[in-house]
Amino acid sequence: MAECHPVGFQWVMEAKNRGAKIIHVDPRFTRTSALAHEHVALRAGSDIAFLGGLINYVLGNGKEFRDYVVAYTNAGAILREDYADAEDLDGLFSGFDPQTGRYDVTTWAYEGADPAPAAGERELWVHPDEEHGGEHHGRSARAESYGSGGATVHAKPIIDETLEHPRCVFQVLKRHYARYTPEAVADICGVSTRQFLDVAEAITANSGRRRTTAWVYSVGWTHHTVGVQYIRAASILQLLLGNIGRPGGGILALRGHASIQGSTDIPTLFNILPGYIPMPHAHQHLDLDMHVGLDAGATGFWGNMRSYTVSLLKAWWGEHATEDNDFRFDHLPRLTGDHGTYQTVYNQLSGKCKGYFLVGENPAVGSANGKLQRLGMANLDWLVVRDLQLIESATFWRDGPEIDTGELATEEIGTEVFFLPAASHVEKDGSFTNTQRLLQWHHKAIEPPGDSRSDLWFYYHLGRIIKQRLRDSTDPRDRPVRELTWSYPAHGPTDEPDAESVLAEINGSGPDGPLSAYTELTDDGSTSCGCWIYCGVYAGGQNHAADRVPGSEQDWVAARWAWAWPANRRILYNRASADPDGRPWSERKRYVWWDAEKAKWVSPDVPDFEATKPPDYVPPENAQAEDALAGNDPFIMQTDGKAWLFAPAGLTDGPLPTHYEPHESPVDNPLYAQQASPARQLFGGEHNRYNPVGSEVYPYAFTTYRLTEHHTAGGMSRALPYLSELQPEFFCEVSPALAEETGLEHGGWATIISARTAIEARVLVTERMKPLRVRGRTIHQVGLPYHWGPNGLSTGDSANDLLSVVLDPNVHIQEAKAATCDIRPGRRPRGGALPELVREYQRRAGIEGSET
Amino acid sequence: MSESGYADAQPRMGFFTDTSVCIGCKACEVACKEWNLVPAAGDASDMDLLGLSYDNTGDLGANSWRHVAFVEQQVPASRVDNLGMPAIGAPEQEDEAGVRWLMSSDVCKHCTHAACLDVCPTGALFRTEFDTVVVQPDICNGCGYCVPACPYGVIEKREEDGRAFKCTLCYDRIGDGLEPACAQACPTDSIQYGELDELRERAELRKQALHDDGVTEARLYGDDPDDGVGGDGAFFLLLDEPEAYGLPPDPVVTTRDLPAMWRRAGAAALGVAAAVVASFAGARR
């Protein structure tokens, strides 16, 4: 966190100063470790074993926050008799089809629930002949759509409040993690039992009625084939300890860029619409009712999805969207399969994808297997790059590594590349949404130089010109564009559209002007709203993202600093900070409570609960939406109002996090016969061969990461002298022991080789890299910051070129944080000798010519 | 009248750099260069990995007015625990050694007795109303006397320019009530700017708090008005001996002995003159 989020880390230092204990769990000793009380070095890719160990410690020692767990989680829910756990099936859950590599999730449901849960029907359970064009239809699962609420279950579970029923979630959980002992953690992670128990004691002592513990993570947890399950494991631990929905608790995601949260809220992802409304599928969602019927949980706040969707359609197609024409639901594009970024690269290689927009993204450096990315882009008709600098993705046709090796020739690349300089955030108005869901407005400080323009300018005028061209078209397929609402006031010499007018559209309006809360949205077409969770940011016609009342002039919750979605609520699910009767769990952690006199919930924050629903409210039979949730169901976006220790729906790769080795691992999986996640998304192909497990040819583990001095793929830092001189070139970090074993010299050069390519880096030998004892042997880890490419002032090979494309099946994220390699002294070969070296390694590993 | 010579001085302003909360982000280096228009490393030959942990600046100089040192140390695991600092890995699996990583943002000390100022023949170096030491580039003639005079090796001539440069404690900001660029950019308040007397009190409390937490290694550096430079206007809380950070353990203003030397030289000259006079006088006899 100190490395990549130094500004946010000031609050960790503030907490430390006030007595908080800071524990840093990371394969590397970083700037964060330097300031933490304790650094736990674990093997990259072994975190579920570590977290599972903590869960087992909690359950085995009765350290769970029992009252919280019984009341607010699904611990007591009874599972079906035919559910089989990874413990029963040696690493698989019931329902796995080895043919397709996918799970049928029917048996993961609660007992008595619909035997084929709707969730399964819509995203997990696609019959083979429903697939389209051989693409992975079922893989377009939309775990992202749970950004504002869980998957749906269509029946409330049968609960055993004693948690003793052998098939209740609590008992299943206990059995599932029973073998995640301190000794197993030591064996898998390389963490000593002493240190593991120190951590376990620290977090359990600091949780409960009077205290809370927070977990903070970044892409070190998400860039894995089991990335979603990493977060699930942390969720289970935090729920058992009662650390969700309470001040000082939570699981906090640190994002890789400013407004990454915003780019999922108003998504740049292919499978969701604004506000996490699912994108319709070509074959499943023929009309709005079907779409809403399939996707909306009948109970909980997702029960109002029709209002959110109709209001979105009204925002986009205005007067053209009416009750009679299903509010132009037909105008929405439909999914025909996986349209994720890596599938798109394969589609480029096969010629299916012909045009590509890169907006503030440098896949030639920043994405896994850079070579695959560059080969894909070299096979396009056209490519639009909008960035601050001439990044490698704009110049690969001229100076990419494949030009030097002869694998590409400039004159043979047909891609027409358009480079359009972009304005930086200080050169335009707009908002950032941070990880705390806080929308913060930024005002333009200076005009962008030269031809640089904002993204808003680019898309507004592009849309305007396209609409102009299609003005007289009678082709039905052009109607969605022709009818699109597209009028924003533009001003200044460059006709810059007014960013606040876009925010106002996102906020939404009704017959009486700007809306002030999403609860005002209707499904009759009288309201429009570009993103339901942002409704209220422009309440009263005021830009609340620009609210900046200093902390000293308001209470500690600071509700008048910027605006948090939803409803300016700073802590989600904060009803859980009170006990089932509505009293704070403790005075020390008081946040939301029921005021019986006023008959309402009160808090310095906005209560995440219906304001006047009393704690003893019991829903009547057949109640719908939020009315179906009881007065002690804090998790209001869930169809059952409970937080899920066990996920009966919504995940493609298992209802409980399970330790699987990374796809490329130096060791075997001691817990199960199943080595890696059975549902992981594999690609293969000539340029994406995989290192075999436990290979002596690629014996070392490596992990990639960022440095404080540079920004991701370098577009914002490697061209700047003041930043470049601070980290002037690419380097690798190795332990003295590995340096001695391989003959590496401090300050010299190393060549690092995987089945994809070989790269070179200067060598930093440092005691901060520590070999770990894992599975009875010494495992060396190589550290590789990934910022570099050939362009700019600070240059070097790209670490991500070493990585393969192998993905988490829920969210299609690459496994960038744990893979294997060889490392040897000296610079890499030039020209055609480079691919020859890679092939020689492949031959020795027995994977030359393999397709997977 | 302050010891530095101002009759109606404002309170003396300075830096307290608390290295125990420095995270090595180098925002101070960048903010300083941005505000003061200090040149970047320049040509490609300067763009070299130094191999000094994460430090690629190396030292203070004409083009680096703030410099973050990164010190990697091996320490026994038991000692690590005592210091309240982290231990790496699984000690009983490997050897008992741990590692700690010290970071510290160095800067011009703005000495009470500033040798650079004493030796400057043009008056380019002067003491400001804030008791800080500033070099005026429009007066500096590039003689370079100040360079060897500095006991900390801070001030340096910019080769392509010829004149000497160093930290001004953002003279052009503090006069307007702003804090220096580095202090403003520092995310963890490792760099604190303020009235020196108040900073010294704050530093003493911080040192005491760290001692109470078991970080007995914490010590102040440059805070003592009785040290060889009369105390620093920019002083530090360190977690190890000054030498570990590349700081001189006992700096002395290099002009300290000049008056005595001049007196002796004068006495010697008088003696020689007297002898000469005496010899002539004697010769007449």
Question: Could you say what the CATH architecture of the largest domain in chain B is?
Answer: 2-Layer Sandwich
Instruction: Look at the structure and give the mean pLDDT of chain B.
Output: 89
Mean pLDDT of chain A: 93
Structural class of chain A: alpha/beta
Strand order of the largest sheet of chain A: 23-25-24-30-22-28
CATH class of the largest domain in chain B: Alpha Beta
| Gross geometry of chain B | globular
Number of strands of chain A: 30
Share of residues in helices of chain A:
10-25%
User: What gyration radius of chain B follows from the Cα positions, in whole Å?
Assistant: 23 Å
Q: Biggest sheet of chain B, open or closed, and with what strands and sense?
A: 4 strands, mixed
Name the CATH class of the domain at 681-845 in chain A: Mainly Beta
Order of helices and strands of chain B: EHEHEHEEHEEHHEHEEH
Going by CATH, the architecture of the domain at 681-845 in chain A would be: Beta Barrel
The largest interface is:
A-B, 51 and 43 residues
Q: Compute the number of helices of chain A.
A: 24
Unreliable spans of chain A: 115-142
